[in-house]
Every structure is written in structure tokens, then in C-alpha cells.
Amino acid sequence: MHTVEKIGGTSMSRFSELMDTILIGDRKGDDLYNRIFVVSAYGGITNLLLEHKKTGEPGVYARFANAENESAWSEALTEVRIKMLDINRELFGDTTEREEADAFINKRIADVEAIMSNLQALCSYGHFQLDDHLMKVREMLAGIGEAHSANNSVIALRKQGVNARLLDLSGWDQEEPLPFEEMIESSFADVDVSKEMPIVTGYTHCKEGLMKTFDRGYSEMTFSKIATKTGANEAIIHKEFHLSTADPGIVGLENVVTIGRTNYDVADQLSNLGMEAIHPKAAKGLRQQEIELRIKNAFEPDHAGTVISTDYCSEKPCVEIIAGRPNLFALEIFDQEMLGEARYDIELPRLLNELRLYVVNRDSDANSITYFVAGTRKMVTRAVRLIGQKFESAEVELHKVAIVSAIGSNLKVPGILARTVSSLADAGISVQALHQSMRQVEMQCIVNQDDYESAVRALHHALIEQEDHGDVICAA
């Protein structure tokens, strides 16, 4: 039996520590194997290759997509190459291993630069449109980051006597893309996990095009698909922190408790709030095959971490985590003609989807609907204008809000609603809206944006700290 384990970019940037914890540590001989590792690019590299995930600052891809000349993006690609070579120097020093690592990435960068230059020249002719090729360029650039970190990992592991093997799923030099599942199956066809350690790129080049649907979430899809297709005993995601009862940066490290067990329903609620334990589509395959997912702190290898399973339900009703999402917009649409008109429920979600506004939640009454959305101010303002044009009798108002949620696998806690409202009132926080579904896994409070962190602290204190769970909620 084997495990499939994913290492995120921030953790990969602390690679020497990973060698001492999860990759090698105290393991010897056969204990090193029966583990497949899916690696992300080093922290910050994908931002430089595409665009910054949080700030939107353009990287190589964004500059290429809007370029009027080659220098607009080639300089950015050179910066990426320099950064990658700096990483190689930090890892390997002045050794033959560094020469091998440098040669690998120099060739990849040179080939990519030639392809992009030729494509830009080709699309200067009217018969060829750059927009038709941009997704392929985006995928090609993303794959460089994972290929770099995976190849370096293999070089470092082999130096320590580990029989590591690079599985480059980025499709480099592949004549024809295969379907996603077939790409995974063919890549692992001759792999013996009992005698070798596969190091796999987080990006998989395939006929479906992972980035079309999942964009930057592609590595979790690769991780999940490998786990299901190879029949893994357990799937493990290594992060630089534990999955805890709240953000320790808000409530204080001394107040958080590690979550020992929970279920995929809870993981989905976290994903909806932008705090992904795993992408819901990636979790789907694991759920269907009843493969448990373990979230571990990469730098505390002896800690059991958090086990997420399909059928787990806390025996004792309790709140497991206080999570939230700040910087949301409440789009409130009031119209006297709304009652009984189904077109509002059909056309409004379609419009928001077209503007790429993510709907976190919504509520409604007889003549109003409010959507709580995440997106740019520009797109939200545009939505207000388009809604007003489509529904001339409607009044549209915009509010800046945040969502704070109490989440648990069994949230049938007596008096939870009263305790929630009371704790927020005691903290001087006004509740704008309150949502609790019959499934009893989440209760959402809508508060003013300025009250977000205060609301997290108030709910964590009232619903978790006062319960005195010890070091772990529901031990794994």
C-alpha cells in the first residue's frame, strides 16, 4: 500500500528542511518508498510566470498577452530564469548537481522563449490570432515552474542515495496531448513505487486542459487523480501550518486548537470561503473511492495532522473551526415586481457568472435578493450598472461586507444561534444577515468589513475556547 503526497510551493521553498522531515528524515531502505510526491513550483515562481495571485501584478504570461513587442515579456522571462538559477545555487552550491540543474532549466527557458517569439511573429499576420493560443502559452509557462522544482528534488534525493524518479507530466516534447486519466495511467505504467520514489510535476498537460477549468488549482487535480488511479491507501497534503480552529494570526497561536478529524463537507465549506484544504473537484474523486485525506504540517512530521474522510461525524456536537472571508460585496437588488418572477433567479446568476464574480452566498425575501460576491471593484460596479439596465424598476445597492462562519461536521450545538448573536453583540458588532442550513455543517454571519477580525475573535472565544478541547479537536 502506498501514499500520494502533495507539497505546496511555500513548503518547497524550505527544501532542505523537507529533506530532514518528510522526504528522508530518519527513513532508510524500504521505508523511503511506497510514497509518491506531487510537487508545486517554489514559492513565488508561478506568480512570476503568470501573474501575482493576490495583487494581479503581471508576470511573463500577462505581459505576453498584452505585449506590443517582445521586450515587454522577454525581460520578465529573463528575471524568472535568474530567480530559478539563484534557487539552484542555494540548493546545490558549486557542485556538478548544480550544473545539471542549471542545464535543465536553461534549456527549458530557451525553448519557451523561442516558441513565444515565433508565436508572436506568426500572430503579427492577420490570419493568426494570438488569443487562440494564449491558454496553451499559459499552460506551457505554468509547467516550467513544477518541472524546475521536481527535477531539483530528484537530483537532491539521488545525491542522498534515494532511487528518485522524475515524472514530468508537463507534456514537454510530447507530440499529442492525451486525455487526463490516460496521461496519468501511461506515466505510471512502469513505475514500481516499492523500489523508487516518483517525484511528479503538479501540472499535467492533457487534452482537456486543466487550466481552462481549474486555473491555479491544477496541482490538486493532478494529486487527486494520481491517488485515485494508483489506488492510494491515503492522500496527504503537506502545508506549512496545521489545519486549526481559526487563523492564528487573528486569534493568537496560543488560542487555536489543531483539528484532528473532520469530513469532506467541512472541507467544501472552507473552499467556498477561499480557505481551501483541497479543491472541491479534487476532493470528489477521493470521496468516491473513500480515500482519506490527511493535512499535515510539513515541518512537524511526528504530528498526526488532520484526517478528512467521507463519513466522519463528530460524536459530540461542536464547532470545529471559525473561518471567514473578508472583502466581499453585498449586491442588494430590491424590486416590487420580483414576487413570483422566476427570471430574477435565472438571469442574475448568469450575469454574475459572465462577470466572473464568485457568489459565496445569497439570501432573499418576497421582493429582494442579495448576493454576497467576491471579485474586483471594477466588475462589481459593472454588475450594478448592468442589473439596473436589465431590470429598470429595480433599486440596486452595494455594501462592503465580510462573512464569518462557524463550521463543523456536527453543528447541532444547543443554543449555538443565541451564543453567536450574543457574543457578537457583546463585542459591539452588528449582524447584517445570518444563514444556517438544515444540513447543520455551517452557520454564516454577515458583518461589516471593518468588523471581520473582531468577529472571528469573538466567535472563536465563545464557541471554541470556552469548550476547552485541549490540544486537538477530535483526535485523528
From TrEMBL:
Residue intervals of the Aspartokinase ACT domain: 404-463
Domain of life: Bacteria
Transferase as UniProt keyword: yes
GO biological process: homoserine biosynthetic process; lysine biosynthetic process via diaminopimelate
Protein EC: 2.7.2.4
Keywords, comma-separated and alphabetical: ATP-binding, Kinase, Nucleotide-binding, Transferase
Entry's transmembrane regions: none
SUPFAM superfamilies assigned: ACT-like, Carbamate kinase-like
Catalysed transformations (reactions): L-aspartate + ATP = 4-phospho-L-aspartate + ADP
Keyword Kinase belongs to the record: yes
Gene Ontology CC entries for this record: cytosol
Residues annotated as domain Aspartate/glutamate/uridylate kinase: 3-297
GO MF terms, alphabetically ordered: aspartate kinase activity; ATP binding
InterPro entries according to UniProt: AceGlu_kinase-like_sf, ACT-like_dom_sf, ACT_Aspartokinase, Asp/Glu/Uridylate_kinase
Homology family: Belongs to the aspartokinase family.
Name of the protein this chain belongs to: aspartate kinase
Organism whose genome encodes this protein: Marinobacterium stanieri
Source species taxonomy: Bacteria, Pseudomonadati, Pseudomonadota, Gammaproteobacteria, Oceanospirillales
